[in-house]
Description:
single chain, alpha+beta, Glutamine Phosphoribosylpyrophosphate, subunit 1, domain 1, Rossmann fold, 2 domains, 6-stranded antiparallel sheet, disordered C terminus, Amidophosphoribosyltransferase
Amino acid sequence: MSKLKEECGIFGIYDWGENSQVAYDTYLALYALQHRGQDSAGIAVNDKGVMKIYKDLGLVPDVFSQQNLEKLGQGQIAIGHARYATTGYLSRENAQPLLINHIKGTLAVAHNGNLTNASELKENLELGGAIFHTTNDTEVISYMITKERLKSSDIETAIENVLYTLRGAYSLVIMSPKKLIAARDPWGFRPLCIGKSDSKIVFASESCALDTIGAKFIRDVKPGEIVVVEKDNIRSIETHCKSKGNMCVFEYIYFARPDSVIEGANVSKARKQAGKYLAIEHPVDADIVMGVPDSGLDAALGYSQYSNIPYDVGYIKNRYIGRTFIQDNQKQRENSVRIKLNVIKEVVKDKRIILVDDSIVRGTTIGRIVNLLREAGAKEVHVRISAPPFISPCYFGTDIDSKENLIACKMSVEEIKNSIGADSLGYLSIENVKRIAQGASCDFCVGCFSGQYPIEAPKDIRKNKFEMPINI
């Protein structure tokens, strides 16, 4: 938890053209969504009703060789998933998409988010005879849809009925023998957009994936909307559309790629706006402003532009190292900071530095980053964070399942400042974090900063909530 872990990345494509390459297009899109999930990756392809799937642990390019892609065949429909395990252990069984065979056909599902009533739904299904092979929410959703499909006239009606029972965050791409379907929870916690190119209609967690395959952004899937694609026909079911939604504001602060546009707001611009508000709320005399690569860079630039304090690059990032949280234990995380970041001593020596980062979770990583500047001769280090302090768990898909590891639940701002070795520390206020995504067509969930959520919080929010001891 040195950094928050990503959501998952999902993608779906229907290509009715003669020379469709849906497996390869999905591979490229997942590559663009790699930042959202680095534990496992998978692709399912539908070729005239016959579905093939390949998935494994690892990064997208490690999972999919040219040979593996070729084995998936041509096909007209495909869905893909890049996973971070917000629920369920890291295992190949928990990799997505999930493929379900039932009496009325085959179903493939990929999911981004976290159900708050998954344990209850799973127990009811098991009492009805369901046998689970994974420990993630997605299999619960898959079984719910399958069960409803047995008594529904079509797959979209089954999905529409199931959404009445699901609580929490879910953006879904679903593939049936003839259709590609996307659905989003009525609160719109997680992003999902629609794109089009020639004979293709696509769905993706972020618009950057559309750019990768040359698709044009059309619009976001509305909170609560179900979008059904059957060849070149696209239609919408809005039974569950009730509000403009409550997007997780941390998508703009950290999760999403800077070149993505979510709910009408550019992520890079939102981060610069966060930097501007930081400069307004927490001004300080300094020689240079610098950001922690990569998610702190835009906010640092925004701080610099508003304060007129020069922006400079003080860290060089090793591009061949994954994000810090990938490391399995604390010692590896400690070593990875030095491997990942190196200070340009000539830039920081004898300077008063404003260091901008996106968040502080445990405080260990930012403390080491500050120490690197001290060792390089920085005169002062003033830390500015483009998010408020984390004080509450997240129930909707991120990696905060308790207050136990949150430094802001144990220390005051002054104590955190001393703990990380900074000369001063300033967080962005909750009021202004809601204002960073200018032009966004949604409201925001800031529950991890305020303790107040758009919907009722569940009692059981452990990451591995399905791994319970058996009482005999």
